[in-house]
Protein backbone atom coordinates (compact mmCIF):
# COMPACT_ATOMS: atom_id res chain seq x y z
CA UNK A 1 0.00 0.00 0.00
CA UNK A 2 1.74 3.14 -1.06
CA UNK A 3 1.60 5.93 1.43
CA UNK A 4 2.61 9.53 1.09
CA UNK A 5 5.75 8.77 3.03
CA UNK A 6 6.64 5.97 0.69
CA UNK A 7 6.07 8.12 -2.36
CA UNK A 8 8.37 10.77 -1.05
CA UNK A 9 11.15 8.32 -0.47
CA UNK A 10 10.73 6.16 -3.51
CA UNK A 11 11.14 8.05 -6.77
CA UNK A 12 10.19 5.03 -8.84
CA UNK A 13 6.98 4.55 -6.97
CA UNK A 14 6.25 8.24 -7.25
CA UNK A 15 6.88 8.14 -10.96
CA UNK A 16 4.51 5.24 -11.38
CA UNK A 17 1.91 7.02 -9.35
CA UNK A 18 2.25 10.14 -11.42
CA UNK A 19 2.10 8.06 -14.57
CA UNK A 20 -1.26 6.79 -13.52
CA UNK A 21 -2.34 10.39 -13.04
CA UNK A 22 -1.23 11.36 -16.49
CA UNK A 23 -0.35 9.07 -19.32
CA UNK A 24 2.02 11.65 -20.74
CA UNK A 25 3.55 13.04 -17.63
CA UNK A 26 6.84 13.94 -19.23
CA UNK A 27 5.49 15.46 -22.36
CA UNK A 28 2.13 16.84 -21.63
CA UNK A 29 2.62 19.46 -19.00
CA UNK A 30 -0.09 22.03 -19.02
CA UNK A 31 0.33 25.72 -18.59
CA UNK A 32 -2.69 27.64 -17.55
CA UNK A 33 -3.48 31.18 -16.66
CA UNK A 34 -6.91 32.24 -15.58
CA UNK A 35 -8.04 35.68 -14.71
CA UNK A 36 -11.34 37.47 -14.61
CA UNK A 37 -10.65 38.72 -18.10
CA UNK A 38 -8.89 35.95 -19.91
CA UNK A 39 -8.08 32.27 -19.84
CA UNK A 40 -5.04 30.89 -21.55
CA UNK A 41 -4.53 27.15 -21.65
CA UNK A 42 -1.49 25.65 -23.30
CA UNK A 43 -0.30 22.10 -23.59
CA UNK A 44 3.05 21.20 -24.84
CA UNK A 45 5.61 18.48 -24.95
CA UNK A 46 9.15 18.72 -23.68
CA UNK A 47 11.59 17.33 -21.19
CA UNK A 48 10.16 19.24 -18.31
CA UNK A 49 9.15 22.75 -17.57
CA UNK A 50 9.67 25.33 -20.25
CA UNK A 51 11.14 24.57 -23.66
CA UNK A 52 14.57 25.88 -24.64
CA UNK A 53 14.88 28.51 -27.33
CA UNK A 54 17.62 26.71 -29.29
CA UNK A 55 17.91 23.42 -31.16
CA UNK A 56 19.45 20.78 -28.91
CA UNK A 57 21.62 17.68 -29.13
CA UNK A 58 20.20 15.12 -28.76
CA UNK A 59 17.16 16.67 -30.28
CA UNK A 60 14.16 16.76 -28.06
CA UNK A 61 11.24 14.64 -29.07
CA UNK A 62 8.77 16.20 -31.40
CA UNK A 63 6.62 18.64 -29.61
CA UNK A 64 3.21 19.87 -30.38
CA UNK A 65 1.88 23.02 -28.96
CA UNK A 66 -1.71 23.85 -28.38
CA UNK A 67 -2.65 27.20 -27.02
CA UNK A 68 -6.23 28.12 -26.33
CA UNK A 69 -7.15 31.63 -25.40
CA UNK A 70 -10.60 32.49 -24.20
CA UNK A 71 -11.76 36.00 -23.89
CA UNK A 72 -13.38 37.52 -20.86
CA UNK A 73 -16.86 36.23 -21.47
CA UNK A 74 -15.85 32.60 -21.68
CA UNK A 75 -13.47 32.91 -18.79
CA UNK A 76 -16.11 33.82 -16.25
CA UNK A 77 -17.01 30.80 -14.13
CA UNK A 78 -20.72 31.48 -14.45
CA UNK A 79 -20.42 31.17 -18.21
CA UNK A 80 -18.55 27.91 -18.07
CA UNK A 81 -20.76 25.19 -19.53
CA UNK A 82 -22.45 23.32 -16.71
CA UNK A 83 -22.22 20.00 -18.50
CA UNK A 84 -18.43 20.20 -18.25
CA UNK A 85 -18.69 20.41 -14.50
CA UNK A 86 -21.13 17.53 -14.39
CA UNK A 87 -18.89 15.44 -16.59
CA UNK A 88 -15.94 16.16 -14.34
CA UNK A 89 -17.87 15.15 -11.25
CA UNK A 90 -18.98 11.90 -12.89
CA UNK A 91 -15.46 10.82 -13.80
CA UNK A 92 -15.07 7.20 -12.67
CA UNK A 93 -12.41 6.73 -10.06
CA UNK A 94 -9.51 4.93 -11.65
CA UNK A 95 -8.43 3.40 -8.40
CA UNK A 96 -10.03 0.11 -7.64
CA UNK A 97 -8.96 -0.20 -4.05
CA UNK A 98 -9.74 2.22 -1.29
CA UNK A 99 -6.33 1.68 0.18
CA UNK A 100 -4.72 3.28 -2.87
CA UNK A 101 -3.87 6.91 -2.63
CA UNK A 102 -6.22 9.18 -4.49
CA UNK A 103 -4.74 9.98 -7.83
CA UNK A 104 -3.23 13.40 -7.79
CA UNK A 105 -3.74 15.43 -10.88
CA UNK A 106 -0.66 17.00 -12.32
CA UNK A 107 -0.18 20.52 -11.17
CA UNK A 108 -0.61 23.09 -13.80
CA UNK A 109 2.48 25.00 -14.67
CA UNK A 110 2.06 28.70 -14.54
CA UNK A 111 2.73 30.75 -17.59
CA UNK A 112 6.08 32.47 -17.50
CA UNK A 113 5.76 35.88 -16.00
CA UNK A 114 5.18 38.42 -18.76
CA UNK A 115 7.87 40.66 -17.31
CA UNK A 116 10.62 38.08 -17.44
CA UNK A 117 11.97 39.50 -20.65
CA UNK A 118 10.88 43.04 -20.00
CA UNK A 119 14.19 44.32 -21.28
CA UNK A 120 12.93 43.33 -24.69
CA UNK A 121 10.06 45.70 -24.35
CA UNK A 122 11.73 48.40 -22.36
CA UNK A 123 11.24 51.79 -23.87
CA UNK A 124 12.61 55.03 -22.80
CA UNK A 125 9.63 57.01 -21.65
CA UNK A 126 9.68 57.52 -17.94
CA UNK A 127 13.23 56.37 -17.51
CA UNK A 128 15.62 58.77 -15.93
CA UNK A 129 18.47 57.54 -18.09
CA UNK A 130 18.03 56.43 -21.66
CA UNK A 131 21.55 55.38 -22.53
CA UNK A 132 24.56 54.94 -20.31
CA UNK A 133 28.06 54.56 -21.67
CA UNK A 134 31.37 54.24 -19.88
CA UNK A 135 31.77 57.92 -19.09
CA UNK A 136 28.60 59.60 -20.25
CA UNK A 137 24.87 59.18 -20.24
CA UNK A 138 21.82 60.92 -21.56
CA UNK A 139 18.12 61.04 -20.83
CA UNK A 140 15.14 60.65 -23.10
CA UNK A 141 14.63 64.40 -23.02
CA UNK A 142 18.22 64.98 -24.15
CA UNK A 143 17.73 62.56 -27.01
CA UNK A 144 14.54 64.21 -28.21
CA UNK A 145 16.15 67.61 -27.98
CA UNK A 146 18.88 66.68 -30.46
CA UNK A 147 16.59 67.02 -33.44
CA UNK A 148 14.20 69.54 -31.94
CA UNK A 149 14.16 73.00 -33.46
CA UNK A 150 12.06 74.71 -30.84
CA UNK A 151 12.97 77.80 -28.91
CA UNK A 152 14.94 76.05 -26.16
CA UNK A 153 16.43 73.20 -28.10
CA UNK A 154 20.07 73.85 -27.31
CA UNK A 155 22.47 70.97 -27.66
CA UNK A 156 22.98 69.52 -24.19
CA UNK A 157 26.37 68.47 -22.93
CA UNK A 158 24.93 64.99 -22.32
CA UNK A 159 23.94 64.57 -25.95
CA UNK A 160 27.22 65.80 -27.40
CA UNK A 161 29.29 63.78 -24.94
CA UNK A 162 27.43 60.56 -25.69
CA UNK A 163 27.57 61.17 -29.45
CA UNK A 164 31.33 61.80 -29.32
CA UNK A 165 31.95 58.77 -27.10
CA UNK A 166 30.05 56.64 -29.61
CA UNK A 167 32.14 58.13 -32.39
CA UNK A 168 35.21 57.00 -30.48
CA UNK A 169 33.76 53.50 -30.21
CA UNK A 170 32.89 53.37 -33.90
CA UNK A 171 36.44 54.19 -34.93
CA UNK A 172 37.99 51.94 -32.30
CA UNK A 173 39.84 54.96 -30.99
CA UNK A 174 40.92 53.35 -27.74
CA UNK A 175 43.16 50.95 -29.61
CA UNK A 176 44.56 53.58 -31.93
CA UNK A 177 45.84 56.27 -29.61
CA UNK A 178 42.83 58.54 -29.98
CA UNK A 179 40.73 59.75 -27.10
CA UNK A 180 37.48 61.71 -27.01
CA UNK A 181 37.31 63.68 -23.80
CA UNK A 182 33.91 64.81 -22.66
CA UNK A 183 32.94 68.35 -21.81
CA UNK A 184 33.41 67.72 -18.08
CA UNK A 185 37.02 66.74 -18.63
CA UNK A 186 37.30 69.91 -20.68
CA UNK A 187 36.07 71.93 -17.75
CA UNK A 188 38.50 70.20 -15.39
CA UNK A 189 41.32 71.10 -17.78
CA UNK A 190 40.07 74.66 -17.90
CA UNK A 191 40.20 74.85 -14.09
CA UNK A 192 43.74 73.52 -14.06
CA UNK A 193 44.74 75.93 -16.80
CA UNK A 194 43.14 78.85 -15.01
CA UNK A 195 43.96 78.15 -11.36
CA UNK A 196 47.06 75.97 -11.65
CA UNK A 197 48.17 73.49 -9.01
CA UNK A 198 46.07 74.93 -6.18
CA UNK A 199 46.69 71.93 -3.94
CA UNK A 200 50.45 71.97 -4.50
CA UNK A 201 50.62 68.21 -4.98
CA UNK A 202 51.48 68.03 -8.68
CA UNK A 203 47.86 67.55 -9.70
CA UNK A 204 47.54 64.39 -7.66
CA UNK A 205 43.78 64.80 -7.66
CA UNK A 206 43.74 64.55 -11.46
CA UNK A 207 44.97 61.00 -11.80
CA UNK A 208 42.02 60.12 -13.99
CA UNK A 209 42.83 62.86 -16.47
CA UNK A 210 46.51 61.92 -16.46
CA UNK A 211 45.79 58.32 -17.32
CA UNK A 212 43.20 59.39 -19.88
CA UNK A 213 45.45 61.72 -21.85
CA UNK A 214 48.98 60.47 -21.38
CA UNK A 215 50.46 58.44 -24.23
CA UNK A 216 47.73 59.33 -26.70
CA UNK A 217 48.40 60.59 -30.22
CA UNK A 218 45.22 62.60 -30.67
CA UNK A 219 42.92 64.17 -28.10
CA UNK A 220 39.51 65.60 -28.99
CA UNK A 221 38.02 68.00 -26.45
CA UNK A 222 34.67 69.77 -26.85
CA UNK A 223 34.94 73.36 -25.67
CA UNK A 224 32.01 75.22 -24.17
CA UNK A 225 32.02 78.93 -23.45
CA UNK A 226 30.32 78.20 -20.14
CA UNK A 227 33.43 76.60 -18.64
CA UNK A 228 34.27 79.82 -16.86
CA UNK A 229 30.73 80.27 -15.60
CA UNK A 230 30.92 77.62 -12.93
CA UNK A 231 28.39 79.01 -10.53
CA UNK A 232 25.67 80.26 -12.82
CA UNK A 233 22.46 78.48 -13.55
CA UNK A 234 23.35 77.44 -17.06
CA UNK A 235 26.72 77.27 -18.71
CA UNK A 236 27.40 78.48 -22.17
CA UNK A 237 25.78 79.09 -25.52
CA UNK A 238 28.45 77.84 -27.89
CA UNK A 239 30.40 74.68 -28.65
CA UNK A 240 33.77 74.54 -30.34
CA UNK A 241 36.43 71.86 -30.72
CA UNK A 242 40.01 71.45 -29.61
CA UNK A 243 41.98 68.75 -31.43
CA UNK A 244 45.34 68.07 -29.85
CA UNK A 245 47.89 66.44 -32.11
CA UNK A 246 50.39 64.97 -29.67
CA UNK A 247 52.70 63.94 -32.51
CA UNK A 248 53.41 67.59 -33.20
CA UNK A 249 52.46 68.71 -29.65
CA UNK A 250 49.99 71.20 -31.06
CA UNK A 251 46.41 71.98 -30.08
CA UNK A 252 44.23 73.06 -32.99
CA UNK A 253 41.28 75.24 -32.09
CA UNK A 254 38.41 74.68 -34.52
CA UNK A 255 35.45 77.01 -34.18
CA UNK A 256 32.50 77.16 -36.54
CA UNK A 257 31.69 80.68 -35.35
CA UNK A 258 35.17 82.14 -35.34
CA UNK A 259 35.82 85.67 -34.17
CA UNK A 260 39.09 87.29 -33.29
CA UNK A 261 40.02 87.16 -29.62
CA UNK A 262 36.73 85.63 -28.66
CA UNK A 263 36.01 84.32 -25.19
CA UNK A 264 35.69 80.81 -26.60
CA UNK A 265 39.14 81.04 -28.14
CA UNK A 266 40.55 82.13 -24.79
CA UNK A 267 38.87 79.16 -23.11
CA UNK A 268 40.39 76.85 -25.72
CA UNK A 269 43.80 78.25 -24.92
CA UNK A 270 43.25 77.83 -21.16
CA UNK A 271 42.21 74.22 -21.68
CA UNK A 272 45.41 73.67 -23.66
CA UNK A 273 47.43 75.09 -20.77
CA UNK A 274 45.59 72.82 -18.36
CA UNK A 275 46.31 69.79 -20.53
CA UNK A 276 49.99 70.74 -20.72
CA UNK A 277 50.18 70.98 -16.94
CA UNK A 278 48.45 67.68 -16.29
CA UNK A 279 50.44 65.56 -18.72
CA UNK A 280 53.64 67.50 -18.10
CA UNK A 281 54.41 68.33 -21.73
CA UNK A 282 54.42 71.64 -23.52
CA UNK A 283 51.65 71.91 -26.09
CA UNK A 284 51.39 74.71 -28.62
CA UNK A 285 48.09 76.42 -29.46
CA UNK A 286 46.94 77.25 -32.97
CA UNK A 287 43.69 78.72 -34.18
CA UNK A 288 42.42 77.19 -37.40
CA UNK A 289 41.33 80.34 -39.18
CA UNK A 290 40.09 78.44 -42.23
CA UNK A 291 37.77 76.21 -40.25
CA UNK A 292 34.37 75.70 -41.89
CA UNK A 293 31.86 78.25 -40.70
CA UNK A 294 28.30 77.42 -39.76
CA UNK A 295 25.45 78.32 -42.04
CA UNK A 296 22.87 80.75 -40.92
CA UNK A 297 20.06 78.94 -42.65
CA UNK A 298 20.41 76.05 -40.26
CA UNK A 299 19.35 78.06 -37.26
CA UNK A 300 16.94 76.98 -34.66
CA UNK A 301 15.03 79.67 -32.88
CA UNK A 302 17.22 81.71 -30.58
CA UNK A 303 20.61 80.57 -31.85
CA UNK A 304 23.04 81.95 -34.36
CA UNK A 305 24.30 78.71 -35.82
CA UNK A 306 24.72 75.00 -35.56
CA UNK A 307 27.92 74.82 -33.53
CA UNK A 308 27.37 71.46 -31.84
CA UNK A 309 26.64 69.60 -35.09
CA UNK A 310 29.73 71.30 -36.52
CA UNK A 311 31.82 69.97 -33.63
CA UNK A 312 30.45 66.48 -34.17
CA UNK A 313 30.89 66.65 -37.93
CA UNK A 314 34.45 67.99 -37.75
CA UNK A 315 35.31 65.30 -35.19
CA UNK A 316 33.96 62.70 -37.55
CA UNK A 317 35.89 64.07 -40.53
CA UNK A 318 39.16 64.28 -38.61
CA UNK A 319 38.98 60.94 -36.81
CA UNK A 320 38.06 59.31 -40.10
CA UNK A 321 41.13 60.93 -41.66
CA UNK A 322 43.36 59.79 -38.80
CA UNK A 323 42.17 56.21 -38.98
CA UNK A 324 42.62 56.09 -42.76
CA UNK A 325 46.16 57.42 -42.44
CA UNK A 326 46.93 54.93 -39.68
CA UNK A 327 45.49 51.99 -41.59
CA UNK A 328 47.45 52.89 -44.72
CA UNK A 329 50.70 53.52 -42.90
CA UNK A 330 50.97 57.21 -43.75
CA UNK A 331 52.61 58.13 -40.49
CA UNK A 332 53.95 61.38 -41.88
CA UNK A 333 50.45 62.47 -42.86
CA UNK A 334 49.38 62.26 -39.25
CA UNK A 335 51.50 65.32 -38.53
CA UNK A 336 49.18 67.34 -40.76
CA UNK A 337 45.95 66.24 -39.14
CA UNK A 338 43.74 69.10 -37.92
CA UNK A 339 45.69 71.68 -39.89
CA UNK A 340 42.83 73.03 -41.95
CA UNK A 341 43.94 74.53 -45.26
CA UNK A 342 42.67 77.72 -46.83
CA UNK A 343 39.42 77.16 -48.66
CA UNK A 344 38.24 74.61 -46.16
CA UNK A 345 35.18 76.66 -45.33
CA UNK A 346 34.13 76.76 -48.93
CA UNK A 347 34.75 73.05 -49.32
CA UNK A 348 32.66 72.40 -46.28
CA UNK A 349 29.70 73.78 -48.16
CA UNK A 350 30.34 71.36 -50.99
CA UNK A 351 30.28 68.50 -48.52
CA UNK A 352 26.57 69.12 -48.14
CA UNK A 353 26.90 69.83 -44.46
CA UNK A 354 23.42 70.07 -43.08
CA UNK A 355 23.12 70.47 -39.35
CA UNK A 356 19.76 68.76 -39.16
CA UNK A 357 21.12 65.76 -41.02
CA UNK A 358 24.03 65.64 -38.62
CA UNK A 359 21.75 65.87 -35.64
CA UNK A 360 19.60 63.06 -37.01
CA UNK A 361 22.73 61.03 -37.51
CA UNK A 362 23.75 61.59 -33.88
CA UNK A 363 20.30 60.62 -32.71
CA UNK A 364 20.18 57.54 -34.92
CA UNK A 365 23.52 56.34 -33.66
CA UNK A 366 22.39 56.74 -30.06
CA UNK A 367 19.24 54.77 -30.79
CA UNK A 368 21.28 52.05 -32.46
CA UNK A 369 23.48 51.77 -29.38
CA UNK A 370 20.42 51.55 -27.17
CA UNK A 371 19.04 48.79 -29.38
CA UNK A 372 22.37 46.98 -29.23
CA UNK A 373 22.54 47.21 -25.45
CA UNK A 374 18.96 46.06 -25.08
CA UNK A 375 19.46 43.22 -27.51
CA UNK A 376 22.60 42.15 -25.74
CA UNK A 377 20.80 41.96 -22.44
CA UNK A 378 17.89 40.14 -24.04
CA UNK A 379 20.24 37.57 -25.52
CA UNK A 380 21.91 37.11 -22.17
CA UNK A 381 18.52 36.54 -20.63
CA UNK A 382 17.80 33.96 -23.33
CA UNK A 383 21.08 32.22 -22.62
CA UNK A 384 20.30 32.13 -18.92
CA UNK A 385 16.85 30.74 -19.65
CA UNK A 386 18.25 27.93 -21.82
CA UNK A 387 20.87 27.12 -19.26
CA UNK A 388 18.24 26.69 -16.59
CA UNK A 389 15.87 24.71 -18.79
CA UNK A 390 18.49 22.26 -20.00
CA UNK A 391 20.20 21.87 -16.66
CA UNK A 392 20.58 18.22 -15.61
CA UNK A 393 18.81 16.98 -18.72
CA UNK A 394 21.89 15.72 -20.54
CA UNK A 395 20.85 17.86 -23.48
CA UNK A 396 22.94 20.69 -24.84
CA UNK A 397 21.90 23.61 -26.96
CA UNK A 398 23.21 23.30 -30.52
CA UNK A 399 23.50 26.97 -31.17
CA UNK A 400 24.26 28.78 -27.94
CA UNK A 401 23.35 32.39 -28.43
CA UNK A 402 25.63 35.39 -28.24
CA UNK A 403 29.16 34.58 -27.21
CA UNK A 404 27.92 31.55 -25.33
CA UNK A 405 27.14 31.79 -21.71
CA UNK A 406 30.38 33.43 -20.75
CA UNK A 407 28.81 36.81 -21.20
CA UNK A 408 26.63 36.25 -18.19
CA UNK A 409 29.33 37.44 -15.87
CA UNK A 410 28.88 40.93 -17.26
CA UNK A 411 25.75 41.16 -15.19
CA UNK A 412 26.77 40.07 -11.74
CA UNK A 413 23.28 40.51 -10.48
CA UNK A 414 21.47 39.38 -13.58
CA UNK A 415 18.72 38.02 -11.41
CA UNK A 416 17.78 41.61 -10.77
CA UNK A 417 16.95 41.83 -14.44
CA UNK A 418 14.75 38.82 -14.65
CA UNK A 419 11.87 37.37 -12.74
CA UNK A 420 12.73 33.92 -11.67
CA UNK A 421 10.43 31.00 -11.99
CA UNK A 422 10.99 28.58 -9.15
CA UNK A 423 10.64 24.85 -9.37
CA UNK A 424 6.97 25.08 -8.76
CA UNK A 425 6.57 27.67 -11.44
CA UNK A 426 5.92 30.35 -8.91
CA UNK A 427 6.99 33.82 -9.78
CA UNK A 428 9.44 35.33 -7.40
CA UNK A 429 9.19 39.06 -7.32
CA UNK A 430 12.46 40.91 -7.42
CA UNK A 431 13.12 44.28 -5.93
CA UNK A 432 13.69 45.73 -9.38
CA UNK A 433 10.31 44.58 -10.60
CA UNK A 434 8.59 46.01 -7.59
CA UNK A 435 10.05 49.35 -8.37
CA UNK A 436 9.59 49.47 -12.10
CA UNK A 437 7.19 46.77 -13.13
CA UNK A 438 4.13 48.91 -13.61
CA UNK A 439 5.80 51.54 -15.71
CA UNK A 440 7.34 49.00 -17.99
CA UNK A 441 4.12 47.15 -18.53
CA UNK A 442 2.48 50.41 -19.41
CA UNK A 443 5.26 51.04 -21.85
CA UNK A 444 4.67 47.65 -23.33
CA UNK A 445 1.11 48.67 -23.91
CA UNK A 446 2.32 51.83 -25.60
CA UNK A 447 4.31 49.76 -28.03
CA UNK A 448 1.38 47.49 -28.59
CA UNK A 449 -0.87 50.38 -29.39
CA UNK A 450 1.63 51.66 -31.90
CA UNK A 451 1.69 48.31 -33.59
CA UNK A 452 -2.06 48.12 -33.88
CA UNK A 453 -3.49 49.66 -37.00
CA UNK A 454 -5.83 52.55 -36.58
CA UNK A 455 -8.87 50.45 -37.31
CA UNK A 456 -7.70 47.83 -34.84
CA UNK A 457 -7.50 50.48 -32.18
CA UNK A 458 -11.20 51.02 -32.61
CA UNK A 459 -11.89 47.37 -32.54
CA UNK A 460 -9.81 46.49 -29.52
CA UNK A 461 -8.99 48.17 -26.33
CA UNK A 462 -5.87 47.66 -24.32
CA UNK A 463 -6.18 48.04 -20.62
CA UNK A 464 -4.73 47.02 -17.33
CA UNK A 465 -6.27 45.05 -14.62
CA UNK A 466 -5.27 43.84 -11.22
CA UNK A 467 -6.23 40.28 -11.73
CA UNK A 468 -4.21 38.52 -9.12
CA UNK A 469 -1.59 37.12 -11.43
CA UNK A 470 0.37 36.50 -8.30
CA UNK A 471 -1.16 37.29 -4.99
CA UNK A 472 1.87 38.96 -3.57
CA UNK A 473 2.89 40.72 -6.75
CA UNK A 474 1.90 44.30 -7.03
CA UNK A 475 2.00 44.58 -10.78
CA UNK A 476 -0.65 44.93 -13.38
CA UNK A 477 -0.96 42.63 -16.31
CA UNK A 478 -1.88 43.51 -19.78
CA UNK A 479 -5.10 42.27 -21.10
CA UNK A 480 -6.32 42.55 -24.60
CA UNK A 481 -9.97 42.04 -25.16
CA UNK A 482 -12.72 42.99 -27.47
CA UNK A 483 -14.33 46.28 -26.90
CA UNK A 484 -17.41 45.95 -24.78
CA UNK A 485 -19.53 47.97 -27.06
CA UNK B 1 38.05 62.55 -9.92
CA UNK B 2 40.56 60.43 -8.17
CA UNK B 3 40.03 59.73 -4.53
CA UNK B 4 43.72 59.96 -3.81
CA UNK B 5 44.36 61.84 -0.67
CA UNK B 6 41.07 60.83 0.83
CA UNK B 7 41.23 61.50 4.54
CA UNK B 8 39.67 58.15 5.36
CA UNK B 9 41.46 55.92 2.92
CA UNK B 10 43.59 54.49 5.70
CA UNK B 11 40.59 53.09 7.47
CA UNK B 12 39.92 49.80 5.75
CA UNK B 13 37.69 48.73 8.61
CA UNK B 14 35.16 51.25 7.34
CA UNK B 15 34.87 49.55 3.98
CA UNK B 16 32.26 47.12 5.07
CA UNK B 17 30.20 49.45 7.23
CA UNK B 18 26.66 50.26 6.31
CA UNK B 19 27.08 54.00 5.99
CA UNK B 20 29.48 56.12 3.96
CA UNK B 21 30.56 59.72 4.17
CA UNK B 22 30.44 61.23 0.70
CA UNK B 23 31.73 64.67 -0.16
CA UNK B 24 29.90 66.60 -2.83
CA UNK B 25 31.70 69.59 -4.26
CA UNK B 26 31.04 72.02 -7.05
CA UNK B 27 34.52 73.50 -6.73
CA UNK B 28 33.04 76.29 -4.67
CA UNK B 29 31.08 74.58 -1.95
CA UNK B 30 31.67 71.32 -0.18
CA UNK B 31 28.84 69.40 1.42
CA UNK B 32 29.23 66.13 3.27
CA UNK B 33 26.55 63.50 3.30
CA UNK B 34 26.29 60.32 5.27
CA UNK B 35 24.28 57.77 3.34
CA UNK B 36 23.67 54.06 3.26
CA UNK B 37 25.52 51.99 0.73
CA UNK B 38 22.29 50.96 -0.89
CA UNK B 39 20.65 54.35 -1.00
CA UNK B 40 20.10 55.74 -4.46
CA UNK B 41 22.31 58.73 -5.13
CA UNK B 42 19.28 60.62 -6.38
CA UNK B 43 18.48 61.46 -2.77
CA UNK B 44 21.92 62.89 -2.26
CA UNK B 45 21.76 64.83 -5.53
CA UNK B 46 18.39 66.30 -4.68
CA UNK B 47 19.56 67.22 -1.21
CA UNK B 48 22.65 68.96 -2.55
CA UNK B 49 20.68 70.89 -5.16
CA UNK B 50 18.07 71.82 -2.60
CA UNK B 51 20.72 73.15 -0.25
CA UNK B 52 22.56 75.04 -2.97
CA UNK B 53 19.43 76.33 -4.65
CA UNK B 54 20.22 74.61 -7.92
CA UNK B 55 17.92 72.96 -10.40
CA UNK B 56 18.73 69.22 -10.42
CA UNK B 57 18.36 69.20 -14.19
CA UNK B 58 21.03 71.85 -14.62
CA UNK B 59 23.87 70.06 -12.85
CA UNK B 60 25.85 66.92 -13.61
CA UNK B 61 27.32 64.67 -10.95
CA UNK B 62 30.53 62.83 -11.73
CA UNK B 63 32.41 60.14 -9.85
CA UNK B 64 35.87 59.16 -11.04
CA UNK B 65 35.25 61.17 -14.19
CA UNK B 66 32.13 59.23 -15.05
CA UNK B 67 28.66 60.61 -15.10
CA UNK B 68 26.59 59.30 -12.21
CA UNK B 69 23.17 57.86 -12.83
CA UNK B 70 20.59 58.97 -10.26
CA UNK B 71 19.62 55.34 -9.73
CA UNK B 72 23.19 54.34 -8.89
CA UNK B 73 24.09 53.73 -5.29
CA UNK B 74 27.47 53.69 -3.50
CA UNK B 75 27.63 49.93 -3.76
CA UNK B 76 27.05 49.87 -7.51
CA UNK B 77 29.74 52.51 -8.01
CA UNK B 78 32.12 50.76 -5.62
CA UNK B 79 32.45 53.91 -3.56
CA UNK B 80 34.40 53.98 -0.35
CA UNK B 81 34.19 56.17 2.69
CA UNK B 82 35.35 59.71 1.97
CA UNK B 83 34.92 59.57 -1.80
CA UNK B 84 34.01 62.73 -3.66
CA UNK B 85 31.24 63.47 -6.10
CA UNK B 86 32.00 66.35 -8.43
CA UNK B 87 29.26 68.66 -9.54
CA UNK B 88 29.47 70.31 -12.93
CA UNK B 89 27.18 72.93 -14.33
CA UNK B 90 25.12 71.97 -17.35
CA UNK B 91 26.69 73.15 -20.59
CA UNK B 92 24.73 73.89 -23.71
CA UNK B 93 25.40 75.32 -27.12
CA UNK B 94 23.93 75.93 -30.53
CA UNK B 95 22.07 73.17 -32.23
TrEMBL record, chain A:
For this protein, the record's Pfam families field holds: Peptidase_C48
Keywords, sorted A to Z: Hydrolase, Protease
Gene Ontology molecular function terms on file: cysteine-type peptidase activity; ubiquitin-like protein peptidase activity
In this chain the Ubiquitin-like protease family profile domain maps to: 136-315
- State the signal peptide span: none
Give the source's domain of life in one word.
Eukaryota
* Stretches the record annotates as Disordered: 1-26
Q: What GO terms describe the biological role, i.e. biological process, of this protein? A: proteolysis
Entry keyword Protease: yes
Family of the protein in this entry: Belongs to the peptidase C48 family.
Q: What is this protein called?
A: Ubiquitin-like protease family profile domain-containing protein
- Organism of origin is Amniculicola lignicola CBS 123094
TrEMBL record, chain B:
Q: Which SUPFAM superfamilies does this one have?
A: Ubiquitin-like (SSF54236)
Q: Where is the composition biased (Basic and acidic residues)?
A: 10-21
Q: Which residues form the Ubiquitin-like domain?
A: 18-94
Disordered: annotated segments: 1-21
- UniProt-recorded name of the protein: Ubiquitin-like protein-like protein SMT3
- Native source species: Amniculicola lignicola CBS 123094
Amino acid sequence: MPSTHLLKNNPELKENHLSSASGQSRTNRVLRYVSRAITVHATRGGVAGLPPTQPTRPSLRDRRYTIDVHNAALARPEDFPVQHLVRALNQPDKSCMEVDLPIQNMNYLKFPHPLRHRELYRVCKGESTFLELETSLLTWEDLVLITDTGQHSWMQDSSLNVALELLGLDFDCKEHGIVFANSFSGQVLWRVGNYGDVDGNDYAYHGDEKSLFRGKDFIFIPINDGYHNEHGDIGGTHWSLLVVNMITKTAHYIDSFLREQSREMEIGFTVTVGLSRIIGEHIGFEVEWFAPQQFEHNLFNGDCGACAPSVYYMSFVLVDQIRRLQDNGFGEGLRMVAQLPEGMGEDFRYWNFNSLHVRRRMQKRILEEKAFQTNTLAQQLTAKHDQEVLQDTGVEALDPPLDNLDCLHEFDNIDDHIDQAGESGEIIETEATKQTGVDEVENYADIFMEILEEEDKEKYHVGFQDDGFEDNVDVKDIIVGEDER
Amino acid sequence: MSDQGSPNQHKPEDAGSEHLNIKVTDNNNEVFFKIKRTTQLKKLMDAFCDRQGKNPNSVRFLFDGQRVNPTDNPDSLDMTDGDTLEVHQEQIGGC
